[in-house]
Amino acid sequence: MSNMSEHAGMYDFGLTAEQEQRARDIHERSIVIDLLFQGPLSPSVIPAEVSEQIKAECEPLKDDPMAYAMLPSKRLRQMSARGELAAFKDEWYRSGITAGNRELDMSSHEGIMTSMGEVQEQFDRTDWLIKALTAADIRRAKADGLKAGIVTTQDPTGLGKNLDLLEALHSFGLRLVQLTYNNQNAIASGCMELANGGVSNFGMTFIRRLNELRIVVDTSHCGKQTTLDACRLSEAPVIASHTGVEAIYPHRRCKSDEEIQAIAATGGVIGVFAMPWFVHEDPKNTTIDHVLDHIDYIVRLVGVDHVGIGTDWPMSDVDWSLVYFKEHIAPKLGFAKGDGPSTELVRGLEQYGLFINFTRGLVARGYSDEEVGKIIGGNWLRVFEQVWGS
Q: Which PROSITE patterns match (predicted)?
């Protein structure tokens, strides 16, 4: 734990020595889950020579903005899986995170095939990373000093209406599906759709099939009516893997009290993100305390059993690519002007090695050991046990 305690001192919660030790003990013994885990890398731990090497490779792609923006993160994933970036393992272990998601790009058929290969390569080449197919796999990872990857997707558009393909992806290991990403698809309306149309007729069938396959229903980027419809239609707990509280910061990516209560009523969990532009009005001066304010609010509204963490930040990318993405790509994906991945960071979570600051902050705010354990991973594990099986 020496690495975590060393980094944790960078953010001052005013803890006593006894509280610091208590936070370290809780973090070390708990199953810690980040359900929108862009990590473990972040720009600050990627060597400058690697950033420059990738930039040189990207230069010929400048006429294709999407390819230019996406290649750096792809290269980092490949280098990580092939053991060419020591920080990949170092940062994951320093963070104390037991399990984090490994995301499939399901926005197109090509994306599905390519990302399946990339994700599987991580599991095949990394002897300390296992694929979580059941909750027991996550418990085993913790017991054996390993890490667990949860295969998820944020955008199922590439499926079209092919439920056989969905079943095949479940066989691959897909365990969590977000219904739509910001915009409209065949399933439902996203949070950036002004029409707020909710779940479609096909979407009802889709949710039923997710339940049958024991895949978790995620509503993070969904519109309000879609979230409420999903909670009404699903026979299993519904979640929002990474969102915030609208009452604290009125952003379209945040959830209303009604949505939070509806998710909790299914037995689900609301994961709080750490994206500076979505949790606080000043992204250049957002701290982990602002993120913890969202957690506190959800606890007061629906109870400690229904809140978790899905940071979605910082990105496993390089600084120059993040700036380019924000200027040229984010507006095409439904992000409002000024929103979307860039170089702003939450103070206290500048890199994944600082994840213990969640635990330290919760201790500082008076949560019990049991409550902290639930928030940093226990609640997610409970949902997985209910949906996937123990």
A: RENAL_DIPEPTIDASE_2
Alpha carbon distances (Å) from 95 to 5, 14, 243:
10, 21, 21
- Rounded to the nearest 5°, which phi and psi values hold at 16? -75, 165
State the residue range of the domain holding 358: 17-388
Residue 1 lies in a domain: no
Residue with tokens 């206290």: 348
User: Model confidence over 277-333: pLDDT tens digits?
Assistant: 999 999 999 999 999 999 999 999 999 999 999 999 998 999 999 888 888 888 777
If one counts every other C-beta atom within 10 angstroms of the C-beta of residue 289, the result is: 18
Q: Which CATH number do you get for residue 273?
A: 3.20.20.140
What pTM does this model have?
0.95
Question: CA-CA distance, 102 to 52, in Å (whole number)?
Answer: 26
Residue 285 has what DSSP assignment? Answer: G
Candidates 291, 273, 274, 284; CA nearest to 220 is 273
How far is it, in rounded angstroms, from Cα 214 to Cα 264?
19
What single DSSP character describes residue 376?
A: I
pLDDT in tens, 39-90: 999 999 999 999 999 999 999 998 898 889 889 999 999 999 999 999 999 9
| Burial state string for 255-274 with b = 16 or more CB within 10 A and e = fewer than 16 | beeebbbbbbebbbbbbbbb
Tokens encoding 290: 């602002």
Q: ∠ CA(148), CA(47), CA(324), 5° rounding? A: 90
104 part of a folded domain:
yes
CA–CA separation, 214 and 260 (whole Å): 22
d(CA 366, CA 151): 34
Query: Is the distance from CB of 206 to CB of 181 less than 8 angstroms?
Result: no
DSSP state of 33: E
Q: In this structure, what are the phi and psi dihedrals at residue 324, rounded to the nearest 5 degrees?
A: -60, -45
3-state secondary structure of 246: coil
